[in-house]
């Protein structure tokens, strides 16, 4: 059996929209067995079972499930049309869907690593990142999930021809999968070196409180409310803070006031407030002064989860935010998480 574990992630951390990612200690796990089966042939030779978050909404069809679809994309780029016969995949997913904790990023990373494993492709992590970026277009979640820890990411300036290749959405990368067909065509391969990452230090005292509202905000919707251009003042505001953020969060002992300031943002959070009742009040009223132990607070990814970074008083801080959401009629759960330094792991047993 092969077991692949991929951590969830919190993207942006305030000013680092589409740049910064933090892998956290909740893991998507997939268990894979490949064995000749006497039963009827499964589509794409793959049988999926699933437990955990999203069990009532995630497709168990290999042509539609994001994990297996991504794996098929990787396999077809290497001349393999389907999974080896018969591949059974059991998915255990504790990452809530559509909450800003990188469930889709983790699923995409799991799919790329799955394709690499069952196809015995021997891809490097850097090449796997290229495949991930063909599917999830912002690098912050997938780089954190693949490499682990607290990362800064960027996309390369590509040639016009490669830019065009990169911009093909997954539905067009594998159109035949939607219809359950196999045209025999090779999908477009990713350009080499689309994206890169760099790992930052993380002060060991800082933990992440995730307050997770019980409703979903699809990332695509949260991206559609963002403007296409920004004022110079807002861009400079974020640049000034993002220049400080990695150093502030890596410094031990942490300076809460500095971190709080370095986590302010004018590029995505203000525009997403319409999707998340109570967001501006929560971000403004929970500060290191009002709540000792707090270092900084932001929307996790595209939301609606709130990420509070703190060194102490975790329960009290969580409770204040739960109460503020509750006043808006929103129920939440909260988790105390730590950076997942190892990123994606593969174990053979
Ligand atoms: N474990 C999984 N298996 C299959 N599909 C998944 C899984 N996790 C997430 N997805 C897909 O990703 C979607 C959520 O993605 P997105 O809106 O980007 O939210 P998130 O912030 O959780 O990444 C789900 O609706 C589902 O289609
Ligand atoms: N930078 C992206 C991150 C989306 O993260 P997710 O966990 O909400 O999918 C964005 O802010 O749109």
From TrEMBL:
Alphabetically ordered keywords of this record: Amino-acid biosynthesis, ATP-binding, Kinase, Lipid biosynthesis, Lipid metabolism, Nucleotide-binding, Steroid biosynthesis, Steroid metabolism, Sterol biosynthesis, Sterol metabolism, Threonine biosynthesis, Transferase
Biological-process GO terms, alphabetical: sterol biosynthetic process; threonine biosynthetic process
Domain GHMP kinase N-terminal stretches: 65-149
PROSITE patterns cross-referenced by the UniProt entry: GHMP_KINASES_ATP
Pathway(s) per entry: Amino-acid biosynthesis; L-threonine biosynthesis; L-threonine from L-aspartate: step 4/5
Record EC number: 2.7.1.39
Domain of life where this protein originates: Eukaryota
Pfam family, one: GHMP_kinases_N
Record-level Gene Ontology MF annotations: ATP binding; homoserine kinase activity
Gene3D superfamilies tied to this protein: 3.30.230.10, GHMP kinase, C-terminal domain
Catalysed reaction, written as an equation: L-homoserine + ATP = O-phospho-L-homoserine + ADP + H(+)
Family to which the UniProt record says this protein belongs: Belongs to the GHMP kinase family. Homoserine kinase subfamily.
Task performed by this protein: Commits homoserine to the threonine biosynthesis pathway by catalyzing its O-phosphorylation.
Protein name: Homoserine kinase
């Amino acid at each position: 059996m092969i077991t692949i574990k991929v951590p969830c992630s919190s993207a942006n951390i305030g000013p680092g929209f589409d740049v910064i990612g933090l892998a956290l200690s909740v893991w998507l796990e997939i268990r894979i067995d490949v064995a000749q089966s006497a039963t009827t042939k499964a589509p794409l030779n793959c049988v999926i079972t699933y437990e955990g978050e999203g069990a009532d909404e995630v497709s168990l069809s290999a042509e539609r499930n994001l994990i297996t679809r991504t794996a098929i994309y990787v396999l077809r780029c290497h001349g393999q049309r389907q999974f080896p016969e018969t591949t059974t995949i059991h998915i255990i997913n504790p990452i809530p869907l559509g909450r800003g904790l990188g469930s889709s990023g983790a699923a995409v990373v799991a799919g790329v690593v799955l394709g690499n494993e069952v196809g015995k492709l021997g891809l490097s992590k850097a090449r796997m990142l290229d495949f991930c970026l063909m599917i999830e277009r912002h690098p912050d979640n997938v780089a954190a999930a693949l490499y682990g820890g607290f990362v800064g990411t960027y996309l390369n300036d590509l040639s016009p021809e490669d830019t065009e290749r990169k911009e093909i959405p997954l539905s067009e990368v594998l159109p035949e999968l939607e219809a359950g067909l196999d045209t025999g065509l090779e999908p477009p391969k990713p350009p080499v070196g689309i994206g890169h990452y760099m790992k930052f230090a993380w002060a060991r005292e800082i933990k992440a409180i995730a307050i997770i509202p019980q409703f979903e905000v699809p990332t695509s919707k949260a991206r559609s409310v963002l403007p296409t251009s920004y004022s110079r003042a807002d861009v400079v505001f974020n640049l000034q803070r993002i220049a400080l953020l990695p150093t502030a969060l890596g410094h031990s002992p942490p300076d809460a006031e500095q971190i709080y300031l370095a986590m302010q943002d004018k590029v995505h959070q203000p525009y997403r407030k319409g999707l998340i009742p109570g967001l501006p009040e929560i971000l403004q009223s929970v500060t290191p002064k009002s709540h000792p132990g707090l270092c900084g607070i932001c929307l996790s990814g595209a939301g609606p989860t709130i990420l509070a970074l703190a060194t102490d008083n975790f329960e009290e801080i969580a409770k204040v935010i739960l109460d503020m959401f509750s006043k808006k009629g929103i129920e939440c759960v909260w988790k105390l998480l730590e950076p997942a330094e190892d990123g994606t792991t593969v174990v053979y047993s």
